[in-house]
Amino acid sequence: MSENTELVTRKDQAQDLEQQRPVITPEVDIFESEHEILLRADMPGVGKDDLAINIDNGKLTLSGIRRMAPTGASTWREFGEVEFRRNFSVPQSIDTDKVSAELKDGLLCLHLPKSEAAKPRQIEIKAG
To answer: What is the pLDDT of residues 59-102, one digit of tens each?
Structure first.
């Protein structure tokens, strides 16, 4: 086998591995307070540049790819590249312009603040 043929074969194998990247649903905890909904998603090994958060028409999509750079010849692989993906419905009471996110040590914290109209308020009672 010539070197050129061998390189093409390896390149094709690498593309096959990319196409076969498994999709995993990340584990999520959701907390609600009177001011916001806090979503925490476990996405180990995902870097900031490989993470996408989209809110469109009441649908929140989290997507992140854990990339593993090969170091040496692979003899056994159980821990490789994966894509984390999960979808949620977002209530209309969320102020999408003020949504913020933090990623630290594989934990994504997504702050979904409630709009002023959705927050509970105290009604003053006037004595007559």
So the answer is: 999 999 999 877 888 788 777 899 999 999 999 889 989 999 99
Residue 13, domain member (yes or no)? no
Range 22-48 burial, b when 16+ CB lie within 10 A, else e: eeeebeeeeeeeeebbebebebeebee
Mean pLDDT of the chain: 84
* CB 62, CB 41: distance < 8 Å: yes
CATH assignment at residue 51: 2.60.40.790
3-state secondary structure of 110: strand
Task: Give the separation between CA 97 and CA 101, rounded to whole angstroms.
Answer: 12
Q: Does residue 57 fall inside a structural domain? A: yes
Which comes out higher in pLDDT, residue 63 or 9? 63
Give the pLDDT score at 1: 47
Radius of gyration of the chain (CA): 22
Q: How many helices (H) and strands (E) does the chain have?
A: 1, 8
Structure tokens at 42: 């476990």
Tell me the one-letter amino acid at 117.
A
